[in-house]
Prior knowledge:
It comes from marine sediment metagenome. The protein has two domains: 1-98, no CATH class; 101-182, no CATH class. 58% of the residues lie in helices and 0% in strands. The protein is built from eight helices and no strands. It has helices spanning 2-11, 29-38, 45-59, 66-75, 85-98, 117-128, 136-149, 161-181. The mean pLDDT is 92.
Amino acid sequence: xxERGKQWLASVRKPCGAWGKTERxxxxxxxxxxxxxxxxxxxxxxxxxxLADEWQHDLASDVxxxxxxxxFLLAQMHPQAPTKHDLMERTITxxxxxxxxxxxxxxxxxxxxGSDPWCTGVALWGLSGCxxxxxxxxxxxxxxxxxxxxxxxxxxxxxxxxxxxxxxxIGAARALRxxxxx
Length: 182
């Protein structure tokens, strides 16, 4: 059954090598980065090249979205990822600088809504793949922010309750693992 799912996923890949949320959607960095991180076996080199090119383009825009940078970093853990050290370093520096004063992450620093669990989880997950180049304090502050916002039932208050909680939990777990390994 898993193989059929992978075949389907490969069949809905866009001609550029990326994925959107649906077959009719445009290619998206978050969707493509997530697939690259969790199912690397369906990813081709053109997928990784597209992600790098798209993120490079986004870096030149007025607003850089933290979660897009984090998903780019996740894809860079793929064994076929092109060596783009400069782009990775710029992304790590950007994400570290985008961490809010409260320790969390938002779509961009100073976003009117402020830090949220989904952005914080995604940023921590992305940075954890480069943990040797990220100060432990970045992870500590992010995990502390997540812990301080967690509800008694274990979820986080976010408009995408399930997805926000999942990303917050993945990010916290990866950050804690990275801190132990440092």
